[in-house]
Amino acid sequence: MSESTKLVATEPQRLLVIDGHSMAFRAFYALPAENFSTDTGQHTNAVHGFVSMLLTMIRQQKPTHVAVAFDLDTPTFRSLEYTEYKGGRNKTPEEFHGQIDLIQKVMEAMNIPTITMDGYEADDIIATLAAQGEAAGLDVLVVSGDRDAFQLITEKTLVLYPKKGISDIPPMDGDAVEAKYFVRPEQYSDLAALVGETADNLPGVPGVGPKTAAKWINLYGGLPGILENIDAIKGKVGDSLREHVENVTRNRRLNHLLRDLELPVALEAMILDRPNREAVEELFDALQFNTLRKRLFDLFGDDPQDAAEEAEIPAHEMLGGAAALEAWFAAHGAQLLGVHAATVGGVGGTDVVGLAFASKDATAYVSLEEIDGETEQALAKVLSSVSHSKAVHDFKGTYKMLKNRGLELAGVTDDTMITAYLIQPDRRSHDLPDIAQQHLRISLDDSKAPASGQLALDFEGPDLATPAVRAAHAVRELSQHLAGMLVERGGDALLKELEMPLSLILARMEMSGIAIDTAKLDGLYEDFTVTINRATEEAYGAIGHEVNLSSPKQLQVVLFEELDLPKTKKIKTGFTTDAESLQDLLVKTGHPFLVALMAYRDATKLRQTVEGLRKAVASDGRIHTTYAQTVAATGRLSSLNPNLQNIPVRSEEGRRIREVFVVGEGYETLLTADYSQIEMRIMAHLSEDEGLIQAYQDGEDLHRFVGSHVFNVEPADVTNEMRSKVKAMSYGLAYGLSSFGLSKQLKISVDEARTLMKDYFSRFGAVRDYLRAVVDQARKDGYTETIFGRRRYLPELASDNRQLRDIAERAALNAPIQGSAADIIKRAMLGVEEGLAEAGLKSRMLLQVHDELVLEVAAGELEKVEKIVRERMGAAAELKVPLDVHVGIGTSWQDAGH
């Protein structure tokens, strides 16, 4: 490790040493497991919380050295002496499994050593590190939730003792220990030996609490003095001490931390270094950490050895008139041009004020604020010309901004944002500065490079040209640089034939928006408010007093103390009050308070959705969502601001929300069209399972058909419960669902889920063979591939970390199926758009929601539109099973449902 890669040392030198398991469990219970998991089902809450806490401590404490100590599963000298040591601890939650390995992998990427020692605990490693650190003249900070660590406190060593969640980590010094326990830190082990330690299953002296133990310690100078004067201690507590003296001496032997281990890592190896950026990027992509990634890199800054260089670009020409503009394009327009829009209005600004152009050896800038009519006409001509080949970063956003100014952008052959995404679909950020940094090693920091569309930056001062020109130059260089990589990764055809044409369609859909019945939307808001108020009063009536129904802490008191209802899953702050657990509790007890509480929660969630929609209605009375093409690694589109892909449809109240989306003025009706069971049809096609293919070709109810084979009954005898189980499992297989995941989803035992999957595979062996083969092939190739050649590279398939391999294997299972479904609906959109244009119709697509399209149909065009939609969607792919398209018609989205 060279000096240039080390962080600048602070004075004094400071060692931060962390009890890995303690902090990991703290993080696990502080963050809900259900809110932190990858697309493939790997829980990451402990990993996320651990890294978040670590970054906070590095920022606040500024250590020069960092190390993390972990326990091993092997026996220690303590458990060999006392077999009940740490016995009786709760079983580790299933969601926690594997997260320690992932934390260790993150530490490796961050160049922070992790230390384990066979036969010893992390506490002994920590104590040894504290002793070594002090001997080397370092201040020492020990991070541990184990009170045994208090014995390590000296003038040079403090303990950071987490109390609440992952943010409250107060330091404990000698005075703090004495104030709380009435003994000095070096005597804490004596106190713990007398009182006992529940967490370690070390029983203390019955009847002796901390105050009594502290009184004895201060009176006799510590445990040795107490034992020397044991006969002088009178009363019941004295008798109890004499009766349990062996426990006390054993406790003292076991809670004493060793400070002289031969550690496998030297103190010099713990000097805090910058993370391995490439390793962190790859790992955080797999774990789907985005904001945490930014926090990490912001904290450590750029490595001088890897720092991006300033881009060397030709001085730009200010094109202030039509003649100058035409001359510049005549001289340079035959080359590929990088184009970038300068915007104002802060992040998300959409007011374009200038355009920058970059050719191989020249750059130029046009200010749209000072442009005259003749120059604007000349600019419009070159922008719309297909003879001028252009590269843009975020074509869709740029197209919309220019369209709003009456300018048409055409001739764009490359969107470097989409190209970078096709090359690395798992990468969390495809922003221009990030991509330029990664691929070109040039800097486009916020003060120099405004990004278009959503990523626009607010620049103060008159010089908008320079950063825009730098960005345009970077776009052109990126386009050239990435072209070969795109071809190598098989994405060239996808870019040209699918994603680029789709961007234009999406831009038009976003600008069109969908009409909203605002009166009905306001009425829904009021209705849900009434429901919330009614449910609140009913909840109060059920318990006889008011309570904050949004406070987990107050709900815990009501449910488990006042009402004494069965306990839910234990978490750090008590017993969980999450929706799933309370729904189970409601089914078990039917308590009226729970009925009201769940009604309150449902209505609150629905009102929040409605409130978000109300804010999103534009001045034209329509909602204009934004579609992201570069978010989902599988290729699926995402809907943002607002997200119209998660409008609830399963409940009657939720379906009412779809009623506010209506046909707009000048149009006759809405038409919805979607694919029936598209992912299962792709599964049948890819696996070539004869049974599944025959079922689809015969038009049978697939889930009933599969259920009859799995449960060995006639199709007519398949119950709704059987069908639901089979449906969940069939889709679960397409998502790489494990037997544990299936058991949670169906609320059955893991053994029953495992048996269900076994029976399924015994009947549909080709599916089992396909799922095995696709992972094996991905391991050989390093990537998975959809029917149309969309690749997802999965380097973690070769990882030496089992959890990362598991994540990658689940991704390898679902990527071809989900990705093929995404490709098919995109191809369908291209086909429908082409069909509408060829027929000269005014009808238009408004929304894409997963496998569903929503169109606004002009008067007299319904029959033609429906024919086009059915034909083009049905022809989007040639599968071994038919693509079944369902169509619905109505004046609202809900009425048009089917």
From TrEMBL:
One Pfam family linked to the record: 5_3_exonuc
Entry EC number(s): 2.7.7.7
Sections of the chain in a coiled coil: none
Enzyme class: transferase
Gene3D superfamilies, per the entry: 3.30.70.370, 5' to 3' exonuclease, C-terminal subdomain, 5'-nuclease, Ribonuclease H-like superfamily/Ribonuclease H, Taq DNA Polymerase, Chain T, domain 4
GO molecular function: DNA-directed DNA polymerase activity
Alphabetically ordered keywords of this record: DNA damage, DNA repair, DNA replication, DNA-binding, DNA-directed DNA polymerase, Exonuclease, Hydrolase, Nuclease, Nucleotidyltransferase, Transferase
5'-3' exonuclease domain location: 13-273
Entry's family note: Belongs to the DNA polymerase type-A family.
Chain's role: In addition to polymerase activity, this DNA polymerase exhibits 5'-3' exonuclease activity.
PANTHER family named in the record: DNA POLYMERASE I, DNA POLYMERASE NU
Name of the protein in question: DNA polymerase I
Natural source organism: Paeniglutamicibacter sulfureus
Gene name tied to this protein: polA
